[in-house]
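ok so I'm stuck.
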Amino acid sequence: QVQLVESGGGLVQAGGSLRLSCVASGNTRIINTMNWYRQAPGKQRELVATSTSSGATYYSNPVKGRFTISRDNAKNMVYLQMNSLKAEDTAVYYCNAQQYFTSLNYWGQGTQVTVSS
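replied:
not stuck anymore, here's the structure
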């Protein structure tokens, strides 16, 4: 089992920056890929960024060039640096961890990001 706790959300003006953090605990050795998702009101949860165990990263088109995912395996942390924020980035952001060799996923409780225009 893996537990994930996000932090760093808040209210920011358009054009500003925020850094989200997610700490993993429990059996962290089973974690392969770590992801950030978001869910805006009335919309489906969507993948924002991915960091694989080999160091590869992926970004969705809406955030490419503005967001950066990074990972500190020694601290069991994953971060999402969000720059040039837009009102449409407003959402609850969730940390997600995928287990090696299975389809098991673990989720954090989410952290609210609100961007005022």
